[in-house]
Amino acid sequence: MPDDDRPRLADLRGEPQVYRAAEDSQLLATAAVARVGRDDLVLDLGTGSGYVGRKVAEACGARVVASDLNPHACRRARDEGLPAVRTDMVSGFRDDTFDWVLFNPPYLPTPEDQEWDDWMERALSGGEDGRAVVDPFLASVRRVLAPGGHALLLVSSLTGLDAVRNRARNEGLITEEATDEQYPSERLVVLELTPTGG
50-54 long-range CB contacts below 8 Å, 24 or more apart? Predict the structure, then answer.
């Protein structure tokens, strides 16, 4: 998709309050479908429209739970046939639960003066450095991974890939690039995260 067609914060004002599937959603779903097994329990974290979770459930036959802080997104995921939990990050889930956690977080670096206060801003804005949601995810995801579990995290080169990898390492997570896609002004990357010793 040409860079000019990439959704930007200013272009989405007044749109519905749920993040619609885009090329980043498709990239994450493709990486997940190639890895998730039929017997796996999967968390589609920050589910938005439910696109990734539905694709994984349909293609893999896995059990998928959707979650989002946005109540509109939870309703949308339920409309897509997914059980959905409204919770912040992974706080609503027990330790050692999921075989896979899939996350397409808000990752666009967004100057404070360009933000606004609604659900779409929360779905897109990664704060000044693009890691305002990525860092807390890396600090908390390990707790909910079952033994042998993994996570897939979609990030942009605009987010600072080395900074994300360094933070993951500091949180006891090994990173490996699962897949990527190049655009004129950024590279989208799906990182597979594995707990050290896991």
Answer: 50/76, 50/77, 50/79, 50/80, 50/82, 50/84, 51/21, 51/25, 51/26, 51/80, 52/21, 52/25, 52/28, 52/102, 52/104, 53/77, 53/80, 53/82, 53/102, 54/80, 54/81, 54/82
Q: How confident is the model at residue 17 (pLDDT cuts 50, 70, 90)?
A: confident
Q: What is the pTM of this model?
A: 0.84
Q: For residue 189, what is the enclosing H or E element?
A: strand 187-195
Encode pLDDT of 72-90 as tens digits.
889 889 988 999 999 988 9
Tokens of 188: 């989208």
Q: Which domains does the chain have, with CATH numbers?
A: 3-195 (3.40.50.150)
E strand or H helix at 102, and its extent? Answer: strand 98-103
